[in-house]
Automatic annotation (TrEMBL), chains A, B:
Residues 12-319 form the FAD/NAD(P)-binding domain. The keyword Oxidoreductase applies. One of its GO terms (molecular function) is oxidoreductase activity. The keyword Flavoprotein applies. It comes from Streptomyces griseomycini. Its cofactor is FAD. It comes from the Bacteria. Residues 344-446 form the Pyridine nucleotide-disulphide oxidoreductase dimerisation domain. PANTHER family: NAD(P)H SULFUR OXIDOREDUCTASE (COA-DEPENDENT), PYRIDINE NUCLEOTIDE-DISULFIDE OXIDOREDUCTASE DOMAIN-CONTAINING. This is NADPH-dependent 2,4-dienoyl-CoA reductase/sulfur reductase-like enzyme. Keywords: FAD, Flavoprotein, Oxidoreductase, Redox-active center. Belongs to the class-III pyridine nucleotide-disulfide oxidoreductase family.
Length: 465, 465
């Protein structure tokens, strides 16, 4: 008699990972199937569930007064909904053949097997920590988890208003630069790329660069960190690059993350070129019947390029969880893919992008025209109309929109949504010129900046024949 | 020898109306054809060209410090581009048979005929002024033209901080209520409809109603104005309704506008059921070869309902002008239609809509489900996350998005653009649930409010079978 038979008609869902994707899946499955039909066991290595990692920079910077505000749903709330949540419990092995996982109590070290009928892998991502001298020194912090955030805040309490170095100038890097400026630090950002925000083309990244310097942030681009100088007390003293040294009381690593797929790899599950799990449209792991995966540990289809990407972002993780939960719970839902939308800010500068950059388009063999326009977020005569720059890429011949990048101030960033929807719909830039967007002087110039860019792009595509 | 032969190869374009549509058409045509090829004569009844009528409430309210900021291009600038602009000159007759227009100098009364090869009608709209006793009293103002705005400001200088009554609670009405509040007036809005903002469903209008009351504005709904009480000095004293009298030092009329098509009607040009000129996709008047029309004097195709509408809005007028100018100038452009997007604000309340209201959908025979969700403009834990309400309509069976209405605070209004693009693309609410919209805590909850509404609408459509 198998384990499954022993439990009779009641199935068991095991979820690995208690953050956005995993717990959304568990919650949605529970909504569709009660505890009589479906037992749900969720393993989480850390102390917390369902929290907003994206909110950590704002907690560190002081905009969010306390940690618990970042927690969407506590362990107790999950348990109250009949989810058997096991905190501080790390899954150490997947046995797909026998349908079970081995889990270890992090504190006691005790291990045991738990069988499943359905499995959700939501192991997230781990921050890239280059194996350089001094990386483990006190005062060097990632900002991936709530524990990371608390540790960083402890360091800030100790080094109040000193010198901070942020390594990396992607979303996390620029958001942490803002947080540290808000905390009164003298901030230097050391960045490997030519310009900050490598998710933008360099010409748009340059605008971010200049704006950050205008905020008093020291930007050091095109520089590789070679190590950290550590004091006798074991605390970090400086970030060392090939040709300079940047004194630091605190160092924040914002270098990026990789899919956390060691378990999946060991179990022989299919991984893509970015190291993420590969799923089908229902978020089921390819080739598997009863195993789903979502969140930062999976790769997603980029609908514009037609290729797989790894985009660790809370909003995707939540969608994945919702889709998985619906399918596990006997419903039907799919995640068709992404267009690569992202928005961020550093102080009052808003930065947004969707679709392909120039180099992405080239890499997938698309020939394009690119235009850049300057406009304002509101009618030029309205108070606080602020300048914004919109870059737009369109395929030659078809005129299909390929991507949009925006750098501006208040009201600029979320305009990227217009392009995100147009990309999803496969619109041409010519079609976009006729879009009926909301207009009133406090909200937009009479030609919305996105329309101005579309008109210019459409003209350029026409001229290019 | 005809007039046209006499001028040889050089054609003459005559434009009637010197605001957004007319002068955009003239400018775009000039861009494509130099003065050797195309002569351009533009007649404008008033003193100004190419100004933002939409900006008048903000000038009156003091946000825009001076009138000239609202003028996008002055008469001199147009003339410098070889456009023969004749101000204070009213066209009094169209002679389509002989291809000429009769114009009268408003000041001298002198009349003369001008022949054309191509004609653009951009006569705009005229405000509705009910024929009630006292409507012509001093202190009663429309806000359609810059001259209207100046006259109102003169009255405000005289009545500083007194009592103001706004008649009508559409966009102009609520914007003028804000302007008058900003000027220190005690403001009453008298409105015929059940709730303010009849471009929204009444349940959403009610939110606007409550918010306006919270701003100290007195809202009187469901009330018909029967006349004005006028003092012996010829100045307005009160607005009189069927069962009350509202003391007023100044009265602002925001009742709406009708297409100004008397000339076109007299000439036998085709008008629609809303009194606007009917055009084809190139903005050419139906049945005509060389006559175009655009702006507030035309009707436009509503892409969602498939019916004609009259939507006086600067952003459409500018698009029309651009399209007309391209076609007149030998290029090619079309205006496919609108989805009915509009955004407005009253103090810090943002109000937006696109697509069909419940009654619009019913009128065109569409069966739908409607959902309303409460969410926030930013992540709930982020400072200044403000509540916003999104109502969404979707067709049963197909699940096609039919319309969205939004009432909220900062960051709420322009989210309507997401729906505007989705409507244009003919998306279903199920497709919308997967939209890859910009997410970061300062910009949006992890599920954008529009996605929350789409999820709820999709579920309701499914449940309805």
């Amino acid at each position: 008699m198998s384990m499954s038979d022993a439990r009779g008609a009641r199935e068991r869902l095991v979820v690995i990972g208690g953050d956005a994707a995993g717990m959304s899946a568990a919650s949605q499955a529970r909504r569709l199937k009660g505890p009589d039909e479906l037992e749900i066991v969720a393993f989480e290595r850390g102390h917390f569930t369902s929290y907003s990692a994206c909110g950590i920079p704002y907690w560190v910077g002081g905009d969010v007064p306390e940690r618990d505000r970042l927690i969407a749903r506590t362990p107790e709330e999950h348990r109250a909904r009949d989810i058997d949540l096991r905190l501080r419990t790390e899954v150490t092995e997947l046995d797909l053949g026998r349908g079970r996982v081995r889990a270890r109590d992090v504190d006691s070290g005790a291990e045991s097997w738990t069988s499943y009928d359905k499995l959700v892998i939501a192991t997230g991502a781990r921050p890239i920590r280059p194996g350089l001298p001094g990386m483990d020194a006190a005062g060097v912090h990632g900002v991936q988890t709530l524990d990371d955030g608390q540790a960083l805040l402890d360091t800030l309490a100790r080094t109040r208003g000193g010198r901070a170095v942020v390594v990396g100038a992607g979303y996390i890097g620029v958001e942490m630069a803002e947080a540290l400026i808000n905390r009164g630090y003298e901030v230097t950002v050391v960045n490997r790329g030519e310009e900050p925000m490598s998710t933008l083309d360099p010409d748009m990244g340059r605008l971010v660069h200049r704006a950050m310097e205008g905020m008093g942030i020291t930007m050091v681009n095109g520089t590789e960190v070679t190590g950290l100088r550590v004091g006798d007390d074991g605390r970090v003293r400086a970030v060392v690059t090939e040709d300079a040294e940047f004194p630091a009381d605190v160092v924040v690593l914002g270098i990026g993350v990789r899919p956390e797929t060691a378990l999946a790899r060991a179990a022989g599950l299919p991984l893509g070129e970015h190291g993420g799990l590969l799923t089908d449209r229902s978020m089921r792991v390819r080739g598997q019947q009863d195993v789903w995966a979502g969140g930062d540990c999976v790769e997603v289809l980029d609908l514009v390029s037609g290729q797989q990407r790894h985009i660790p972002l809370g909003t995707h993780a939540n969608k994945h969880g919702q889709v998985i939960g619906a399918n596990v719970g006997g419903g039907y839902a799919t995640f068709p893919g992404v267009v690569g939308t992202a928005v961020s800010k550093v102080c009052d500068l808003e930065i947004a992008r969707t679709g392909l950059r120039e180099k992405d388009a080239r890499r997938v063999g698309l020939r394009f025209e690119a235009v850049t326009v300057e406009s304002t977020s509101r009618a030029g005569y309205y108070p606080n109309a602020s300048p914004m720059t919109v870059k737009m890429l369109a395929e030659v011949r078809t005129g299909r929109l390929l991507g949009v990048q925006i750098v501006g101030r208040e009201g600029a960033g979320k305009r990227v949504d217009i392009a995100a929807v147009a990309l999803t719909a496969g619109m041409t830039v010519e079609q976009m010129t006729a879009l009926d967007l909301g207009y009133a002087p406090p909200f937009s110039p009479v030609w919305d900046p996105v329309l101005v860019a579309a008109r210019k792009a459409a003209a350029k595509v026409r001229d290019a024949g």
